[in-house]
Write a structure and sequence with these properties.
The chain is 34% helix and 29% strand. The protein is built from eleven helices and 17 strands. The strands form four sheets. It has a five-stranded mixed beta sheet. A five-stranded mixed beta sheet has the order 11-10-9-12-13, with helices on one face. Strands 14-15-17-16 form a four-stranded antiparallel beta sheet, with helices on one face. With 413 residues, it is an alpha+beta fold. It starts with a strand and ends in a 5-residue tail after the last strand.
């Protein structure tokens, strides 16, 4: 069958460079042929411009769950760092954090060292491999609440336990017993547990621990790439795509509009002919415009004999706006008249600083609040009042949350 894309998983970095395992997929994300191993250049030669799906080792990506109210999820990317930071022991600035709405308030969150994303994506894309998506392999394993998976990776001396759809945790092999105790204390014991390992001997110790601590039916599957057979993109897809935020995949215009190449060439030729045919009339129009501009400046000088003349038309508009407040917008007082009810409605909001630009019809408002919800509610109240409000720079200072609002009247942006 025809290759549509490929799963690409980086191996441990060696002196000769980074190598990869990859598995080709058809248009229905079904695996084609054997798992292959090679460099980024060899992956590129195999795909021939087809997109790749980057698969990171589960031990590199931490999975967690947070609760975010639905009405706050429109600013999810800004809130994830605040929600996850208390759980972290490392510097949050060195991490890449991504999220995915699982259901209602339940948000799946994945974070990892951002240098892994930077280095791996740069290496593959510099070789010509277009990375469309990036996932943790733990999110793609077909683990279920009644059937857990334990995936052993001797190369990293780690074991990944998948105890439900999209739920997993990777620990060192020596910590498997502690992990099972923790999971069994919070979850119902599964009916079956499958241990995956490159060879049967690698699974012996883990299998013994599982049989000692559970009464579940235990089976062992072994093979060099056995874990790849338990990866799935089907069903209700709940994996967190790490290709978001600063790592958002660029738009591949060549792929999207490649079929338009010939029509575009014809349109370009027609446009060139049109430009040549209208060049003389455009030149005449420019001369008429210059003459009109001189007349406008003469009229301005008659009305305003003093001051520096730069752009007569714009200067007249600005002066009228400052005097009447209605040439290009409603003016400060009318904007404040619309902002005041929103401030009164949200009791937790306190104004810290106010700045108004008459030229841009822009009101900058710095506020503090006890919760992020108050800030988001204030933003909604401004929009319901007919204002165009944007929230910027939500930060935390002690027990307070600070935010900057840029507010325009309706129709001004």
């Amino acid at each position: 069958m025809k290759v549509h894309s490929a799963i690409i998983k980086p191996l441990q970095r060696a002196e000769s460079g980074v190598s990869y395992h990859w598995q080709c997929l058809d248009s229905h994300n079904r695996m084609l042929g054997p798992v292959q191993t090679g460099t980024a250049e060899q992956v590129s030669q195999q795909l021939k411009g087809k997109p790749g799906i980057l698969l990171l080792d589960a031990s590199d990506v931490v999975d967690s769950r947070v609760q975010v109210p639905v009405k706050q999820q429109k600013q999810l990317s800004q809130l994830l760092a605040f929600e996850v930071e208390p759980q972290l022991a490392s510097d949050i600035s060195q991490l890449h954090i991504a999220g995915h709405v699982v259901a209602n308030d339940d948000i799946a969150v994945a974070h990892l060292d951002r240098s892994i994303m930077v280095d791996t994506i740069a290496d593959l894309e510099s070789a010509g491999v277009e990375i469309a998506h990036c996932y943790s392999e733990g999110h793609l394993f077909e683990g279920k609440a009644e059937h857990w998976l334990l995936v052993q990776n001797p190369a990293t001396d780690s074991v990944t336990c998948c105890w439900g759809e999209g739920r997993y945790c990777a620990v060192k092999s020596s910590q498997v017993s502690v992990l099972l105790d923790s999971l069994l204390a919070e979850n119902r014991q599964p009916d079956a547990i499958t241990v995956l390992a490159p060879v049967v001997e690698d699974a012996a110790q883990v299998t013994a621990i599982v049989r000692r601590q559970t009464s579940a039916s235990v089976q062992v599957e072994a093979g060099e790439h056995i874990s790849w057979q338990w990866i799935s993109f089907g069903g209700e897809f709940r994996a967190v795509d790490l290709r978001q935020g600063e790592f958002q995949a660029p738009v591949r215009w060549g792929r999207k509009i490649g079929w338009l190449r010939m029509p575009a060439m014809a349109a370009t030729l027609a446009l060139t002919m049109y430009i040549v045919a209208t060049a003389l009339s455009t030149y005449q129009a420019n001369r008429q415009f210059d003459a009109l501009q001189v007349a406008i400046e003469d009229s301005y000088r008659q009305a305003m004999p003093q001051g520096v003349l730069v752009d007569a038309t714009q200067q007249l508009r600005s002066q009228l706006a400052q005097l009447s407040g209605n040439t290009e917008g409603p003016g400060l007082l009318l904007i404040l008249d619309q902002v005041a009810p929103a401030l009164s409605a949200i009791s937790g909001i306190r104004v810290q600083r106010l700045n108004y630009s008459a030229g841009r019809q822009e009101l900058n408002l710095s506020v503090s609040a006890q919760t992020n919800e108050d800030i988001l509610s204030f933003n909604d109240a401004l929009n319901e009042a007919g204002l165009n409000a944007r929230t910027q720079n939500i930060t935390r200072q002690g027990e307070s949350h600070l935010a900057q609002f840029v507010i325009f009247a309706t129709g001004v942006s």
